Amino acid sequence: xxxSSPSPVAVFGASNTVAKLQADVxxxxxxxxxxxxxxxxxxxxxxTAIAVISQQVPDIRLGTAVVPxxxxxxxxxxxxxxxxxxxxxxxxxxxxxxxxKPVVEGMWGLPFDRPVKHMSDYLKILQPLLxxxxxxxxxxxxxxxxxxxxxxxxxxxxxxxxxxxxxKLAGKLADGTVTWMxxxxxxxxxxxxxxxxxxxxxxxxAPQVIAAVPVCCTDDVDAARAKAAEEYVIYGxxxxxxxxxxxxxxxxxxxxxxxGSADHIAEGMQRFLDAGATTIVANTFGTPDEQAxxxxxxxxxxx
Length: 303
Description:
This protein is α/β, with parallel strands linked by helices. The protein folds into two domains: 1-155, Luciferase-like domain (TIM Barrel, Alpha-Beta Barrel); 160-303, Alpha-Beta Barrel (TIM Barrel). The chain has helices at residues 18-30, 46-56, 74-88, 101-104, 115-132, 164-173, 184-201, 221-231, 239-247, 253-256, 262-275, 288-299, and strands spanning 9-12, 35-38, 61-64, 67-68, 92-97, 134-138, 143-147, 157-159, 176-180, 208-217, 258-260, 279-284. The strands form two sheets. Strands 1-2-3-5-8-9-10-12 form an eight-stranded parallel barrel, surrounded by seven helices. α6 (164-173) crosses α7. It is globular. The two termini are 26 Å apart. The model has no long low-confidence stretch (mean pLDDT 96).
């Protein structure tokens, strides 16, 4: 199994310029964080940015949370991921995910049919290419046959898995999962036991469970809750995340967010670890001072 040693806590950040993202990664490294996660949405091409940043900021792993699978054939993604792994000295953590039906169909014009089968085919092509540079898989949803010549340490692959079937698939074929809008009760009752059991049944080592959560260190809890409700509103509407919030009995993302004092944040993050997460990722929001305070609170869990 290809996997990094999990850190108990990591940070998440995003930017629309490589320079700003690089500065944020450097700040995280200076605080002692050994993992930094960043998304592939509609700003930077994240793997290109990571390749550049890895040359300037040493000694921190850089993860994608997450690269959507539908617009990138697994052979193309394998080439790119191995190239990034090569230039970064093996510091890439490759998070991949389906995205969502409104994006895949509405924005890209691609069919969002049988998503679990799509991901199964995708992993059965991607993983051999990362490990050996060759594959022959004629899938129902995705086909991949051929070889690539990039030689580098194969990055661990993490699947954005929320529901039971995707968690089972991730445990069987990947190195772990990256979750979002998933609370500690769900981590303990569904996420961790399901993916761990699937990995054990497949003869694989225990997978990583990487749980990202919104975090704000502030004295003005009400204002921060209102900010979270506004900033993360879409995640309370997308069906997959809505289902996770419903499992926790939460009305919206603001109920999941860890908002308050440094001690409150540290205690809340520890609950995720106690529930079975191997890494808790602080996705900070709010003013610059509130975000800095949230990262400082998260850093207390590093020791």
